[in-house]
Amino acid sequence: QCSEKGTVKLDVEKSFGEYIKTCGADFVAVDFYAAAAISCYQLGDTMYTGSKRFVNSEFYKNSQDSFKRIKPPFSARLWKPCIKRYADALLAAFPADKIILYRQRFSERSVTGGELRLIESRDSLNKRIAEMEDYFIRLVDPAVVDLSRCYFNTGSSPSNIEHEYFVDAANAAERILTQGRGYIDHGNIDLW
C-alpha cells in the first residue's frame, strides 16, 4: 500500500515502475478518476499529478513558476502515452489476472439527509473516465469491478459515494481473486 505522501514521492521521482515490481503486493487495484479529473503540472517534458500534497510539496514550491498547469479534460495525445506506460509497468510486475480495474460512473443523483436529489451532471467526466478505462482494458485485459453505477452519491463531489459501494467493491475484488478472473457488474442487493 502506498500512502498519499509516498505517492507524491513516486510521482516526483518517476519511480512507480520500480516500486510496483518490489512492493510485494499480491494484486493491484486501479481506477482512473484522478487521471480524468485532476489537473496535471508540466515541467519540461515531465508531467506530475496536481494533488493537494503535490502542490504543497517543497519540490513544487521550489519551482512553482516553471510549472505549466494543464486542466482536464485532457486530449488523448496527452493521456494515452501515460496510460500505456502505466499499463506496461503494471504488466511487468503482475499477471493480468492480478490487476483489477474499478470502473467509475458517477450518478447525477445524491442521497442527502435521506432524500434523493438531482445534482450536477457528470456526463463529461464519466465519458472521459470511460475512454481511459476502455483503452486500459484493451492494453491489459484486467479483471473488472463495475459497480459504481449501482450506487448514489452522498454529496456534491463525484468521489462521495454511498458506503455500501466500498463494501460491495471490496467483496467483488475478493471474489475475483479467489474464484478467478471476471467482470462483476451487479451490486450485492443484500447490502441495500
List keywords for this structure.
alpha/beta, four-stranded parallel beta sheet, globular, three-stranded antiparallel beta sheet
Description:
With about 190 residues, the chain is of the alpha/beta class. It has eight helices and nine strands. The chain has a four-stranded parallel β-sheet, sandwiched between helices. It has a three-stranded antiparallel β-sheet with strand order 3-2-4. Strands 6-7 form a two-stranded antiparallel ribbon. α2 packs parallel to α6 (about 75-95) and α6 (about 75-95) packs across α7. It is globular.
Widest sheet: strand ordering: 1-5-8-9
Distance between the termini: 29 Å
- List the total number of helices: 8
Gross morphology: globular
Please compute the radius of gyration using only Cα atoms.
18 Å
Computed structural class: alpha/beta
Which range does the strand content fall in?
A: 15-25%
Order of helices and strands: HHEHEEHHEHEEEHEHE
Biggest sheet details: 4 strands, parallel
Poorly predicted residue ranges: 1-5
Overall residue-averaged pLDDT value: 86
| Count of β-strands | 9
Percentage of helical residues? 40-55%
What's a quick, concise take on this entry?
The protein has helices spanning 4-13, 16-22, 33-37, 52-55, 58-62, 76-93, 123-140, 163-179, and strands spanning 28-30, 40-43, 46-49, 68-70, 99-102, 109-112, 115-118, 143-145, 183-184. By secondary structure, the chain is an alpha/beta fold.
List the helices and strands and how they pair.
Blueprint: H1 4-13, H2 16-22, E1 28-30, H3 33-37, E2 40-43, E3 46-49, H4 52-55, H5 58-62, E4 68-70, H6 76-93, E5 99-102, E6 109-112, E7 115-118, H7 123-140, E8 143-145, H8 163-179, E9 183-184
Helix pairs in contact: 2-6, 6-7
